[in-house]
Design brief:
Shape: elongated
Radius of gyration: 19 Å
Order of helices and strands: HHHHHHH
Helix content: over 70%
Number of strands: 0
Structural class: mainly alpha
Largest sheet: none
Amino acid sequence: MLKRVLVEGVVSGAAGMVAMTVGEVVEQRLTGRPDSHVPARVLERVLGVQDHQGSSLRAMNLAMHFGQGIALGPLRSLMAHVGLRGPVASAKFTVVRLTNDQILENATGVGAPPQTWPRAELAVDLLHKAVYGYATGLVADALAARRGPGPGQRHAAVAPGRRAGVGPLPRRTATAR
């Protein structure tokens, strides 16, 4: 299952990044907002390299931008494989994506806590990360659904709704297929 989760996660994360990038390009054309170089600056600090300029700055930006999204994709794939699917799971995953960004940006001194940002900037970031989270989720859920319900979904089917007295699934049926 691990190999499947990793492969499907990379595919899902890449699809989410494509969706997010297309959305960013459209938004920037409509609003005139310039490119952010925060991803590149974070990657430079993490790698301990000099600041890049020009086309190499853009390459660093894309490497970090896509690298983060693809690296987090397997987590969403794992969620889908164990039965955490749909819009609520994608909302939870969106929070993970936002948290990942904030940890890296704040730890490197490139960014500041979101509560200090201008509200319009915060709204744009939340929108783009939500596009990523939900697009990644759609692909991860569709790929995982080919294997049937996950253990959490099978457990929920025993007695629909949250009920007392429903024990765990037998071990042989609980493990992911």
